[in-house]
Amino acid sequence: MTTSTAVVNPTVSVKLTGAGSTFINPVLQAMISAYQAATPTVAINYQSVGSGAGISALEGHTVDFAASDAPLQAADIAKAPNALTIPTTIGAEAIAYNVPGIASNLHLTGKVIADIFSGNVTTWNNPEIQSLNTNVTLPSNSILVVHRSDSSGTTFVFTGYLSQESAGWNKTYGQSKTIGWPVGLGANGNAGVAGVVQGTTYTIGYVELDYAIANKMTVASVENNAGNWVLPTLASSAAAATSVTSLPAGNGVWSTFNLLNQPGANTYPIVTFSYILVYKDLSVNTDLNVNSADALVNFLYWAVNTGQGQAQGLSYVPLPANVVAIDVATIQSITFGTTALAIQQ
Amino acid sequence: MSNYAVRRFKDRLFFFLGIACIVLAVLPLGSILLEVIVKGLPTLSLNFLTTVPGPGGANVGGIGPAIQGSLILIGLTSLIGIPLGVLSGIYLAEYGDAPYARVMRSLNDVLTEFPSIVVGLTVFLVVVLKVSGSVGLGFSPLSGAIALSFILIPIVARTAEEAIKLVPNALREASMALGVRKWRTTLSIVLSVAKAGLVTGILLAVARVAGETAPLILTVLGNTHFFEGFNEPLAALPLQIYQDALSADPGIQARAWGAALILILVVLSLNIVVRLATRGRMGNSGRK
Amino acid sequence: MKISGDRIFNVVSAVVAATAAVILAITAYTLATGSAPILQKEGLSFFTGIMWNPNPAHEVFGALPYLEGTLVTSAIALIIGVPLSLGIAIFLSEMSPATVRVPISYLVELLAAVPSVIYGLWGLFVFRFYVKDYLEIPLNKYLGWIPAFKGTPYGLDVLTAGLILAIMIIPTVSSISREVLRAVPNPIREGAYSIGATRWEVVSKWVVSYGRSGIFGAAILGLGRAVGETMAVTMVIGNSVGPDAIPTSLLKPSQTMASLIASNVRDASDPLSFSAYIGVGLMLLILGLSINVIAQVMVTRLLKVKGGAVE
Asked: Cβ of C25 under 8 Å from any chain B Cβ?
């Protein structure tokens, strides 16, 4: 029962800490920068340590909020009861490669990507790849697979895509934030994968679209549900979000929800929400008080509304109106003990 | 002794092999210093040293919080680690022949060579996590300082023991002959005579701890802001270098080199100063 | 009865001297209890298995590849680092002019002062390209038929990690070897020189063989350091997981126990996988401890018996 309402005291400085997804990091850091400029009393520290680490930090009550590209799974929900799921941005995962002489737009299907990442296709001129790219002269060099070495939501989304595309992948490896990779080189964070792919020839890896664009990486066109070859762009990832009609509520179960292989002629197939996760009752975080809890709620509200303006410049997709509406309802339900938290925007 | 020329040749070859070994060992040191200076120097400015890190791209920002965080960690670690380390050292030096002391000395030596990631893991489980069975300090300056002092204590204990053992027994005997109790003799006379050696050992140990990264990953987390309180995550130079090195953003990679330049300047100058200052006194035998 | 100040001081300092023992005990206890769940589930196959998948639907944890990665990189460090260190120690203690001895030993010891993360930074952006271009590509081209040199050279692999470890153990091994050599009694040298032996003969036939077990101890201490080294290795070894981490070739990414923990342990979202990382920590602890105890015994025994150079 909510008995009173707290209003953030603007004269008291507040510190908030979040950790998790590296996928969301560029846009979240931009949001935080902009928010702090407007609200100097609120200092937000976000550490991009990987979604898995973020969720464990939330479960260990060592952070005030977590960010993850993978929704909470059953085991997480047990350890972080009453955590809320707030889709905060939408991003695509690019299949980036570094093959001298080959520009962007190499054609790949989900099945071939799965074969590459499971070590069944080991050279660039393998017939599986060549037959999709008849007008490209592919080298005979070995493919160097680059994957994430840390526990990551990006891996969760990517392996979810491979599981949908390849029965063999699904059976052997499945979908997870960390995988016992059969081949390849591990790198830490999206930035780490981007760095290794860029610095090493004949590599292929999966990175969040913004990292691929910011680093001018060459990326593959992937075959979508409609059978078209689609490059990862802002438009082609936005197309995935428009087709979403029914979403779980903020306190509902999101574990099986995804934005993979959405319908539409120009929809890029590997698209995901990135979520911010917070406790519904913020008083379970001993670091917080009513005032800082209210500041957190105000930041979250700002992030899913005004903050969305930061997305496009960084190749993330602003949330569609129906998602924002669900988020606002979720954010309004957050309390500190029995105290409701006022949103002043 | 028939083949004198061959034997002489072998002897010469041997001499040059020795020189080659030294060159091979010193070459990496030269390369590291050169690269850190060449890549780190262009980033340096007052702004770089005093501002918070930016998100990348056009706004790389600086390493102010990392420098501050490292200073805080070094301070806290010294507060915890130096008294415990020195007192352990005193015991091992003054009462070191008992079987108990021998065991403690061996365990201390074992801890000196402990994998630092294991220390970090333990502190994470025992101190950081906010679950039952753990102290629950969270990612915080104190958690980091506890992890670092686990590394500092055995090194200080060891060097303190060696420094105190160098104090001539005649001094102790003279003091006690004047009726001064053993504990007063130790704390006033012995320690003041051993001061130079103690300070040397402590400074070298602190320099070593200042560069430790593995224990920090699991204890202070990192922070893009300046110090926010004793129950909040903290930035640190080695952590900043590790995180920035893994970035694909060239500006952030440059920030890693800038931070590395600062760290290496501090650590190496501490080492060089200490060694130059003690060269005359300790000669060859005091160093380890 | 009045308790004397001496007694109090003795007891207090004795208690404090147990700090290291307490830290060791806490560590051992924490890691042992923390790894109980994974040992219950996997049993012996935690040590012998090669698959590693924290996905709850495919959950399996076998830590053998990381033990192998640790041992192989450390072995490379010893194979390269120990002869170099011994060369340095012999040069400094037996041959070098006194004027260069001190500056050179300072330089070598400065290698120990460089923080591990800076070795990693340098390894990632500088050294690995040297290794790739001047070692791995030629090795692969001319000796690629040997399994150890199979693969595609890209510098983030077992060889680079092993070489960086070799550099990092040089100061430890060379300074202890030097002390061991210094502990060799001078009459042994004088006797050899007096029968007309050259410097090379004196060192190789008498001095080194006299100090053999101490040098062996120094190498073991270097091994201990290599086994536990974390940051530099994590940044250059390629961080592969599962069967792919088995170091079948020098030109292959792998993983050590320390690097696995450093890059993954914060992922505690699944209790069993968290326990698995703690289990790897326990393995590292046991390996590190046994190596160290062996080294301590060998070095201290030798230095104690053969004249107190290390006071």
From this structure: no
For B136, the token pair is 């629950």
All residues of chain A having their beta carbon less than 8 Å from the beta carbon of residue B55 are 26, 29-30, 33
Complex confidence, ipTM: 0.92
Question: What are the average pLDDT values for consecutive 10-residue runs of chain B, which has 288 residues?
Answer: 77 89 95 97 96 82 96 97 96 90 90 90 89 80 97 95 91 88 87 89 93 92 89 93 84 95 94 77 41
Which of B21, B175, B264 is best to mutate for the C interface (most C CBs within 10 A)?
A: B21
State whether residue C156 sits within 8 Å of chain A by CB. Answer: yes
C154-170: pLDDT as tens digits:
888 999 999 999 999 99
Number of domains comprising chain B: 2
Pairwise CB contact (< 8 Å): B166 & C311:
yes
Contacts of C123 in chain B (CB under 8 A): none
B224 shares a domain with B167? yes
Check CB contact under 8 Å for A141 and C152: yes
- What structural domains and CATH numbers belong to chain C? 65-310 (1.10.3720.10)
Residues B98 and B212 in one domain: yes
Residue of chain A whose alpha carbon sits nearest to that of B242: A188
Secondary structure of chain A in HEC code, one letter for each residue = CCCEEECCCCCCCEEEEEEECCCCHHHHHHHHHHHHHHCCCEEEEEECCCHHHHHHHHHCCCCCEEEECCCCCHHHHHHCCCEEEEEEEEEEEEEEEECCCCCCCCEECHHHHHHHHCCCCCECCCHHHHCCCCCCCCCCCECEEEEECCCCHHHHHHHHHHHHHCHHHHHHCCCCCCCCCCCCEEECHHHHHHHHHHHCCCEEEEEEHHHHHHCCCEECEEECCCCCEECCCHHHHHHHHHCCCCCCCCCCCCCCCCCCCCCCCCCCCCEEEEEEEEECEHHHCCCCCHHHHHHHHHHHHHHHCHHHHHCHHHCCECCCHHHHHHHHHHHHCCEECCEEECCCC
C289 touches chain B (CB under 8 A): yes
Residue of A nearest to B58 (CA): A214
A43·B228 Cβ contact <8 A: yes
* A contact chains, 3+ CB pairs < 8 A: B, C
CB contact under 8 Å between A52 and C51, yes or no, is no
**A32 alpha carbon, distance to own chain's centre:** 17
Are residues B193 and B148 part of one domain?
yes
Least Cα distance to A235 among A265, A266, A256, A257 occurs for: A266
Nearest chain B residue to C310 by CA: give it: B285
Provide CB contacts within 8 A for A199, sequence distance 6+: none
Cβ contact A214–B228 (<8 Å): no
Q: Is C143 on the interface with B (CB under 8 A)?
A: no
Contacts of C57 in chain A (CB under 8 A): 174, 176
- Decide if B32 and C122 are in contact by the 8 Å CB cutoff: yes
Q: Which domain holds residue B11?
A: 2-43
Comparing CB atoms, the residue among B55, B128, B248 nearest residue A30 is B55
List, in order, residues 6 or more apart from A150 with CB less than 8 Å away: A49, A50, A52, A53, A178, A188, A189, C263, C264, C266, C267
Contact between A93 and A316 under an 8 Å Cβ cutoff? The reply is: no
Structural domains in chain A?
4-89+247-340 (3.40.190.10), 93-241 (3.40.190.10)
Beta-bridge mates of residue A276 = A67, A86
What radius of gyration, in Å, describes the C-alpha atoms of chain A?
Answer: 21
Which chains does C contact via 3+ CB–CB distances below 8 A?
A, B
* Residues of chain A contacting residue C123, judged by C-beta atoms under 8 Å apart: none
pLDDT in tens, A256-294: 889 999 998 999 999 999 999 999 999 998 889 999 999
